[in-house]
Amino acid sequence: MVSQFPLSKVTTLQLQELTQILWSWSTCAECLAGKECNPPACSWHRSPILKPFFDFYKEEMLSYRSDLKQGQKAALESHEDLFAIIKKLKASPDAKRVDLVESLFSDRPVRSDQERAVDLGVRVMLMVNCSASRQDSVLVEDGNHQFPWRNDVTFTDYVRGIFSQKPHPGIIHIKENLRAFKLKKRSGLIFEPTDDIRSHLNFDHKKAVVKIFHHAAFLKEQLKLTKNEPQSMSVSESLQLGALPRALALETLDSIQNILFQLTESKSKALLRSLISSSNFDKDIISYDFSTVCNPDEKEVTYQYFTTELGDLYEEQSNPTPRGVKKWFEKKSGARYVMMATIAGIIFAVLSLGLGAFQAWIGWQQWQHPVS
Fold first, then answer.
1. Cα dihedral 348, 349, 355, 356 sign
2. Residues contacting residue 306 through CB under 8 Å, at least 6 positions apart
3. What are 204's strand-pairing partners?
4. Using alpha carbons only, how large is the chain's radius of gyration in Å?
5. Fewer CB atoms < 10 Å away: N or C end of the chain?
6. Burial classification of residue 126, based on how many CB atoms lie within 10 Å of its CB (0-12 exposed, 13-18 middle, 19 or more buried)
7. Three-state SS across 200-257?
8. Which segments in the chain show pLDDT lower than 50?
């Protein structure tokens, strides 16, 4: 009988193979045999800091369900099947989705299952949800509009399309006003983690919630893949390495560690530590590793992807959205209530004048008719 959840069990060996496929990790023989690691030659000694990503992987594997009829073959029967999809995505980023699906699953006829398998491969490789087959509840909660990877679009064009560049040199001048602790104090904003990089810095005005792509360790592994590569590297070339565009990964990490949470400031660090303990933010988010992931000329990041989102936060800091009691009072300040307040003021003035006249008359009577 075919298991409905064929990927629900994840072993250490499978995670080790995953890191080799995603980031070209080299795992020593001792680790592969379940013995004590032998750093620095072995990459697996870095695995503890990837725990949030591994937890994400396990949750995604548990979510894959193959609802097939008897005798049908699932698109994913093992983790190795998923790894094969990731390898194919890296090898052929300029192939259209329809061609990738057909080359991967020539012997597996259930199309919807094939589509889910490819979506899962992209999700693991780039932490991006490209599903066209279902409305992802996390994306809806994050305020993200569905942007599926269509059959006639290449992987490269899809990635280029969902991360459009919007350069704005003015961001550098407002960085000081975008500290998370200031936004929390002035506007009452709440910061929540997201596992989809597309949702990074999404701001829900109604709920006063800002989403933060908190997987710092994942971003650092992405940056290591493209470190020392030419600045002119294309999106296609990045994907062949298994990486997001370098500028995007740099900007995401910098927006967290140098803008929202300036790691040299005690208030920023305190808030970040509280989010790590209370909201399951990645612990590695508090570690600054410039020399290991950045090139010498990348100390100042030029913003071109999240300028709109940062601009929205700056507007909120400058003109906080009324919420709670303040919002109620603001609603009551319409023309009808202004008129009512004016009438009430006039009535109060008349009553005050009448009271004053009455008191004056009593005083005059007492003066005219003193009591002996």
1. positive
2. 200, 201, 251, 252, 255
3. 209
4. 30
5. C
6. buried
7. CCCEECCCCEEEEECCHHHHHHHHHHHCCCCCCCCHHHHHHCCCCCHHHHHHHHHHHH
8. 1, 134-143, 325-326, 328-331
